[in-house]
Structures are given as structure tokens and as C-alpha cells.
Amino acid sequence: MNKITNFLLIFFILLAGSLSGQTRFCEQKICVVEFNANWNKANSVDWLDSLENCGVIRINIGENQITQSQQEDYNITVVPTIIVFNGVEVKRFQSCLRFKMGATQEEVQAVVNEILR
């Protein structure tokens, strides 16, 4: 998808979520969202798409996919940040000071599996 399409998609997903009182980043019941930035692309979470039983979306701060106020609303202070949503935030994993994700695929998958129980 091109940048404009991505922006519109994210905008309408966020708008729908804010109107319903819940965060809806994707159509799945459980959604795992990675917030990152272009300057940190080398530290993107490469195993994210291998997660099971959840939707996955990557949001690039600085590419107009998320506004400054939304960044503040979701309290994104370091990238990458992974947040597991089930309508609302369930669990957050933040990178270390070197901007690398310390959480493992197994740790994030365990959160998804726990929600499904």
C-alpha cells in the first residue's frame, strides 16, 4: 500500500476505536501492535508476523501513521514498543535503551494465549 492509503487506514481504525470507546487497530479480537520509527527500522521486531491467533500491525511514528497526540495517548516513549490489545491495552513490551526489543516471541505469544483462555 502507498503512504496515503496506510495513513487513511490507520486514521479510520483509530477513529473507529475512539468512537466505540475501545482501541481497534485491526479486525482481530486480539491485536499486537509494534510502534517504531524509520530511524530505528534496523531494530524492527522480525518475529512479529509469526505470532498466532492475533492480528499484527506495525505503526511507523513519523510516517504520518500516528500523530504526536496519539503517540502521547499511547505513551510511546521508546521504540520499538509492542502493545497487545484486546479492545484495550492488555500488556506492553518496551525496548531497552539501545532501542532493541528485549521481549521474545514466546513472551508475547504467552500474553495472546492467556487472553484466549
Short description:
The chain has three helices and four strands. With 117 residues, the chain is an alpha+beta fold. It has a single domain (3-116), classed as Glutaredoxin (3-Layer(aba) Sandwich), CATH 3.40.30.
Question: Explain this structure to me?
Answer:
By secondary structure, this protein is an alpha+beta fold. The chain has a single domain (3-116), classed as Glutaredoxin, CATH 3.40.30. The chain contains 3 helices and 4 strands; from the N terminus they run H-E-E-H-E-E-H. It has helices at 3-20, 68-73, 105-116; strands at residues 31-37, 55-61, 81-85, 89-94. It has a 4-stranded mixed β-sheet with strand order 2-1-3-4, covered by helices on one side. The chain is globular. The chain starts with a helix and ends with a helix. Mean pLDDT is 82; it is low at 5-23.
Which features characterize this protein?
Glutaredoxin, 117 residues, alpha+beta, globular, four-stranded mixed beta sheet
Which structural class best describes the helix and strand composition? alpha+beta
Task: List SSEs in N-to-C order.
Answer: HEEHEEH
Shape call? globular
Q: Proportion of β residues?
A: 15-25%
CATH topology (level 3) name: Glutaredoxin
Q: Whole-Å distance between the termini?
A: 35 Å
Number of helices: 3
Whole-number tally of structural domains? 1
Query: Low-confidence parts, pLDDT < 50 over ≥5 residues?
Result: 5-23
